[in-house]
Amino acid sequence: MAGKNVAKRAYGGFLWLSGKLRDMINFIILSAVYFLGIGLTSVFAKLFGKRFLNVKKGRARSYWVKKPAYNEKKEDFLNQF
Amino acid sequence: MYILGISCFYHDAAAFLIRDGLPVAGAAEERFTRKKHDTSFPINAINYCLKEAGISADLLSYVAFYEKPVLKFERVLSQHLETFPKSWVTFCTSIQSWISEKLRVESIIRKKLRYRGKIFFIEHHLCHAASCFFVSPFKRAAILAVDGVGEWATTSIGIGSDNRISLKKEIVFPHSIGLLYSTATAHLGFKVNNDEYKVMGLSAYGKPRYYNNFKKIIDIKEDGSFALDMSYFDYPFGKKMPGRKYIMEFGPIRKKGEPITKMHMDIAASLQKVTEEAIFKIISNLRKESGEENLCIAGGVALNSVANGKILKKSGFKKIFIQPAAGDDGASLGAAYFTWNFILKKKRTYVMDSASWGPSFSDNEIKKFLDDKGIKYNRYRSASALIKDVSKRILAGKVVGWFQGRMEWGPRALGNRSILANPRIPEMKEILNSKVKHREEFRPFAPAVPAWLARRYFECDFPVPIPADFMLMVYPIKKDKQKLIPAVTHIDGTGRLQTIRRFQNPLYYDLIMQFGRDSKVPILINTSFNIRGEPIVCTPEDAYKCMMGTGIDCTVMGSFFVERKNNLRDAWDSEGVSRNE
After folding, report:
1. Which residues of chain B does A62 touch, with a Cβ-Cβ cutoff of 8 Å?
2. Is the pLDDT confidence value at B578 over 70?
3. Both B184 and B61 in a single domain?
């Protein structure tokens, strides 16, 4: 019985450790993706004046954005974009 | 033809099934998993819907999803690109769920349901628009969809006509009334995407002293369009929504357990005022531009019942419709109806005048549960005996759990999974807040009243709009009636009433009328059958557990009467659960 408990605890500890390791590796890989992918794109795009979000309150008379008429073909609704 | 609508992976996952344009069943996943606002794939809700229809997933003609995932991902990437390097940690933590599930929706649906048919992906605000217009009583109507954010849109306006919807204009992320409200909710120490209604309730206690501070943050044009000054917000890149400037403007974020002060109340009141200003300007402009007399609203902001109650008076619209599940759960219904009416071009045949689309339990099933658990109970011989007895108990000040028929669709308990009490007892609000619901003392309770009697007690629109049946409208209580129903009169003299028509729920309606005969006031307190922090009960077991953990005196399940004091061996204290919420 005691042996079973020890094995159970060891297994629980192993799961915990593997979870932490997985999170750490994910974080390192995603950080690399972030700085190399997102970071470089962002810096270069901003150098050329590209904005990805309209974060500034403008002086426009209206903030409404006209919505383009959507295609009503059935197939278009099968797309995820 | 069966069509299944699904919403999930953001908040309030849900499924809704229709057959030939008529509802079969719908429910939020949280009711089955008992995890409030559960976002996970709603497999339990889907299985329930299929069971209710008596079919398996391969008999579904179409499945419709409530957003276009790739469009949404484009917005998320844009956030990270715009806010680099501040979004580093958020990127690393949030992107994993995109890779593992949000961008794999199609394969998840196919794998979990073993479904091989077509899957439609419908823009989020189109789903919201469809969820309110296609089940409304209107042939034509102006439509407003307003929430935190969908793919890009945060506010959309358009027109619905027969089985067509055309959204004309939109405000896009990061400018969002919903996210402004959520930011203030976080700042006031409440849970985002959960407690916005608490801020709305709190607003009645304050004065809008911070209105001008909010006006610095949001620029509202005469045509209703608006933009936020994003230097006040962290939500485009961080988990914490209020930014440093916001905190400097409104003071430090209220921490969990800290008292709610006058300042917090005033901030809530100011937020509510500025939110109403934006909504009323949008709607008034929509009325002018569209020329329509009917209005349909959907999206999380449409659950702001304080604003809803003023819309007809302020906007010039003659009629209004809001669907009971106006938030993201309701978008699953919208996805299903958009498919049926818009994509398949079918005629509209249904008006949503009832919210009873969830699971029900027969007397046999309830009896089996009670017997299996060894619970002591009595059985009423007839509906009239049940009504008379329950009315007398409520009159005597008892708090009654009411578990009848099909569970409600949407966040409100409307007389199927409700706790009922006497609104004439002044202390009843405190009793319910402290002993039963374990919730903040500032939060009001809803009065339930027969629709044809509502004008006797409330200064409500006439005819009473259908959304009032779904507890989505707050109206002033007539001054001379406020003393009659002190337990449901909010600090500002208003009440978030539920109007009830007999065809919707005969037993509940008859109970209220019987209580009216016994007490001279045909109004009951109706609050959701749950403990704070838990979803509304779904099964007899949930209901029994809830009663035994709270100060509910008795529960009527079907034709069975279960009293707490007779089953004390199962008693437990739910206060700890609610405290840890």
Report:
1. 221, 223, 225
2. no
3. no
Whether residue B544 lies within 8 A of chain A, CB to CB, comes out as no
Please give the pLDDT value at position A68.
83
Residue B155 domain-assigned (yes or no): no
Segment B254-275 shows an average pLDDT of 95
Q: What b-and-e string marks burial along B133-168, b requiring 16 or more CB atoms within 10 Å of the CB?
A: bbbbebeebbbbbbbbbbbbbbbbbbbbeebebebb
Q: Which domain holds residue B111?
A: 2-66+68-121+328-343
Whether residues B277 and B332 fall in one domain: no
Res. B568 pLDDT band, cuts 50 70 90: very high
What end-to-end distance do the CA atoms of chain B give, in Å?
42
Do the chains contact at B92 and A42, CB–CB below 8 Å? no
Q: Are residues B390 and B335 in the same domain?
A: no
Q: Does A2 lie at the interface with B, CB-CB under 8 angstroms?
A: no
Q: Is the domain of B210 the same as that of B281? A: yes
User: Is A54 part of the contact surface with chain B (CB cutoff 8 Å)?
Assistant: yes
CB-CB under 8 Å, B174 with A62: no
Residue B447 pLDDT > 50: yes
Residue with tokens 């506010």, as numbered in its chain: B155
B580 — pLDDT class (breaks 50, 70, 90): very low
In a domain, B392, yes or no: yes
- A1 in contact with B, Cβ within 8 Å: no
Contact A77 B343 (CB under 8 A): yes
Is residue B14 predicted with pLDDT exceeding 90? yes
Say whether both B94 and B202 belong to one domain. no
Q: Give Rg (Cα) of chain A.
A: 25
Give the contacts of B177 (CB within 8 A, at least 6 positions apart).
B146, B154, B155, B226, B275, B278, B279, B301
% pLDDT > 70, chain B: 99
Contacts of B77 in chain A (CB under 8 A): 38
Tell me the sheet residues that pair with B170: A65, B156
Domain residue spans in chain A?
2-78
Average pLDDT, chain B: 96
* Number of Cβ pairs < 8 A linking chain A and chain B: 113
Contact of B46 with B378, CB cutoff 8 Å: no
pLDDT digits (tens, 9 = 90+) for B170-203: 999 999 999 999 999 999 999 998 899 999 999 9
Q: Are residues B334 and B247 in the same domain?
A: no
Mutate to test the interface with A, among B63, B72, B80, B81 (most CBs of A within 10 A): B81
A73 touches B at CB < 8 Å: no
Whether B374 and B458 share a structural domain: yes
B391 and B512 together in one domain? yes
Contact of A63 with B227, CB cutoff 8 Å: yes
- Give the model confidence (pLDDT) of B475-530 as tens digits: 999 999 999 999 999 999 999 999 999 999 999 999 999 999 999 999 999 999 99
B158 lies in some domain:
no
Q: What is the tally of structural domains in chain B?
A: 3
User: Under a CB-based contact definition with an 8 Å cutoff, are residues B246 and B187 in contact?
Assistant: yes
Q: For residues B210-226, give the mean pLDDT.
A: 96
Q: What is the pLDDT of residues A19-74, one digit of tens each?
A: 899 889 989 999 999 999 999 999 999 999 999 998 876 678 899 999 987 777 88
- Residues B150, B155: Cα–Cα separation, whole Å: 9
In a domain, B148, yes or no: no
pLDDT at residue B23 tops 60: yes
Burial of A33 (0-12, 13-18, 19+ CB in 10 A): middle
CATH code of the domain covering residue B258: 3.30.420.40
pLDDT band at residue B98, thresholds of 50, 70 and 90?
very high
